[in-house]
Amino acid sequence: MKTTLTSDTLNTLTAALKTEAKRLGFSDARITDTDLSRYTPDFEAWLAKAYHGEMHYMEKNKALRSNPRALLPEVLRIIVVRLPYLPKDTQPVKTLKQNHLGYISRYALGGDYHRFIRKKLEKLAAFMQAQIGPFGYRAFTDSAPILEKPLGEKAGLGWIGKNTLLLHPDDGSWFFLGELFTDLPLPLDPAVNYVGCQNCVACINICPTQAIVAPNQLDARRCISYLTIELRGSIPEDLRPLIGNRIYGCDDCQLICPWNRYAKASTEQQFAARHALANQPLTELFAWDEATFLAKTEGSAIRRIGYECWLRNIAVALGNASPSETIVAALKAREHDPSPLVQEHVAWALAKQRAIMSMSSHASLQKLTQKLNPNY
Question: Which residues partner with 166 through β-bridges?
């Protein structure tokens, strides 16, 4: 039986659910309403510039993203939660500097977060129902047409930084967001005035492909995360050398962000790196057959790109690696891959490796000649 929802009851419930959210592992839980009107113009302008690339679902569900009540008419409040994910001891900068290793965005090294966070939100809803009885709700995490970062900012969980990520003084940007849509008229949390990014432009300057075209404006078509995860076709040739050894996503704008100095590693075992994916040699990853790929990425966000794009991405990274006969041999082994997409990127990588080797040989010969004949 549902408890009478007086203001005192709702205040008591709100305090209790926030305590329970932290017990469940969330850093914070805050409550906002459904009005995202102040974010809609920027979102529509982003779409109009075609910065979403081939992510057509962004445009298809535009009306739902701008209006949570179009998605769930009975929703009155949205409980937004923050869950840190940074795995311990994965040494991201060290891996990026060793270009024979594959770099995977830190959020994808462990298990997939979608179901994991939704289960926690379901537990939070069950806790609330135990307090007041049944009520209407839906749990989401990057799983519905929702403007999650605006909701997080509006709820007071941080501010949207110049790299377009949500930032918080305690967790930086190394966290996932989740939402519990509810028909309960819970008291709203007050706005929070964060210091923000101020004059810092480190993320804009560090971006390998200059995808952050202006503060708070990301051209996804140039973003390495988009190129290696969302794009299903050929990666533009002019962007391939800039990808380096990043084979699934990119964290550069997070690694350089001063606020991430204060972020703590996650204590959730779900996000711990699996199968040594934090620093695996590219040649070993490239040698996986499809069955191995599926086995190693079971329960991982990586699996969503599929085996073909996995090989495409690694081929590009191998082309960018320091010249090596081992790398050339690995590429040649897939020169006649059944996938035309893989073939194309392998051919590009082989050509790049051979060009670098040729230049290195020429430079070495020139040095030797100068040593033997100083007048040369």
Answer: 160
Largest CA distance in the chain: 97
Which is nearest to 142 in space by CA: 172, 108, 167, 187? 108
CA distances from residue 321 to 2, 98, 245, 364 in whole angstroms, order as listed: 62, 9, 7, 19
142 as an active site residue: the answer is yes
* Whole-number Cα distances in Å, 299 to 177, 276, 293: 19, 15, 12
Kindly report the number of other CB atoms within 10 A of residue 215's CB atom: 14
Q: What is the DSSP string of 186-252?
A: PPPPPP------TT--HHHHH-TT--EEETTEE-GGG-HHIIIII--SPPPTTTHHHHTTEEE---H
Distance between CA 286 and CA 331 in Å, rounded? 8
| Residue 113 and residue 177 in contact, taking contact as beta carbons nearer than 8 Å | no
Euclidean distance between CA atoms 62 and 51, whole angstroms: 14
| pLDDT tens digits along 167-201 | 999 999 999 999 999 999 999 999 999 999 999 99
Model's pTM, two decimal places?
A: 0.92
Please, are residues 80 and 26 in contact by the beta-carbon 8 Å criterion? no
- Catalytic residue (one of 33, 42, 142, 337): 142
Spatial CA neighbour of 239 closest among 217, 215, 219: 219
Over the chain, what is the mean pLDDT? 93
- Please compute the mean of the pLDDT values over residues 121-140 and round it to a whole number: 97
Count CB-CB contacts under 10 A for residue 336: 9
SS3 39: coil
Provide the Cα torsion 33, 34, 35, 41; round to 10°.
140
Which residues, other chains included, contact 46 with Cβ-Cβ below 8 Å and sequence gap of 6+? Answer: 52, 217
User: CA-CA distance, 160 to 144, in Å (whole number)?
Assistant: 20
Helices (H) and strands (E) in the chain, counts: 17, 10
DSSP state of 281: B
